[in-house]
């Protein structure tokens, strides 16, 4: 792990370094060197201190890990946070969220909501997120300007949505955006058919063909509720996942979001196709959608990543908290206290998310040659003591307020809890103004 003679741009010296790959490893008193946005050195502190570096950061009491990866969300919906709480999914969507979107969602809404979500996620240790929302070009501009990393899924439905009059227009926009951004270092465009019940076979067929031609991923809500599966079986005699398999959509580029309902046949399809599952435990709990059997999937060899879902159904974009919930819930669902231990939970929130997005050669673990997407968690506080296993402490006893510093591709976007590129006071004021408009308290 010896870097070439050129000086490092930055040398980080934490108390603990958790690379995630290899699994279960905690390195004490090691250094990590960054040059040109990439990790070029990981080694003992004594060796690290012999290297020439433009900047050296001592991080006592801190744990360095790969940046967290939020594998599913609807960023701009942060402006609908708390708008229609405590309702079942279809009532929430049909009576509240879809009408609110029809009334309020435009380019300005998406810009302001996405910026709010980016700031919240950076402060929570998230370096990369997946977004599936309207006006995806606006969202991608926000990501570009922020310095963050993202997968932008183009939302495709059979009916008109904000920014696209039909599925064909949405697909055309997606192809164009894919072409525009295919060489972007931090943004990846994918196709996001909303759900099996909102996209017909003909449109799914088009998406499959285009995704194959472009080698693009497909990101879709699947088996979110028992009702969705039951309705599909009653209407067509086929479970939604089986339908997607018949249409040729499942595979290593397919990201199945939610998957709370998994039969033995469903599990076999996921395993055979090497499809990734994106688990959103808190949204599923809040909407009473069901429980994704994470341990069962993991033991079968399915790649399971984790997402917050949108702030309208969660109600936060706190992936560290989400990961803690996922670990607890996995134990309850499996009936085993050993299910989804802390180290595997962290892997689910980092490397598994990168793998689901096809980015695992670039991000998701602290390895030489990968991008320097890194978060420093401060474990020096009262509530984290004493520390036997720092990863256990991170997952079970640490909140996102312990996120101290964050880098994406070697650029520091959070410095001592302060956003370096965004104006937090301005973002807050803008969000408050939107809330007043939407609630009818101002014009």
UniProtKB/TrEMBL annotation:
<protein>
    <submittedName>
        <fullName>TRZ/ATZ family hydrolase</fullName>
    </submittedName>
</protein>
<dbReference type="Pfam" id="PF01979">
    <property type="entry name" value="Amidohydro_1"/>
</dbReference>
<keyword id="KW-0479">Metal-binding</keyword>
<comment type="similarity">
    <text>Belongs to the metallo-dependent hydrolases superfamily. ATZ/TRZ family.</text>
</comment>
<dbReference type="InterPro" id="IPR032466">
    <property type="entry name" value="Metal_Hydrolase"/>
</dbReference>
<keyword id="KW-0378">Hydrolase</keyword>
<dbReference type="InterPro" id="IPR011059">
    <property type="entry name" value="Metal-dep_hydrolase_composite"/>
</dbReference>
<dbReference type="InterPro" id="IPR050287">
    <property type="entry name" value="MTA/SAH_deaminase"/>
</dbReference>
<dbReference type="GO" id="GO:0019239">
    <property type="term" value="F:deaminase activity"/>
</dbReference>
<feature type="domain" description="Amidohydrolase-related">
    <location>
        <begin position="64"/>
        <end position="412"/>
    </location>
</feature>
<dbReference type="GO" id="GO:0046872">
    <property type="term" value="F:metal ion binding"/>
</dbReference>
<dbReference type="InterPro" id="IPR006680">
    <property type="entry name" value="Amidohydro-rel"/>
</dbReference>
<dbReference type="GO" id="GO:0016814">
    <property type="term" value="F:hydrolase activity, acting on carbon-nitrogen (but not peptide) bonds, in cyclic amidines"/>
</dbReference>
<keyword id="KW-0862">Zinc</keyword>
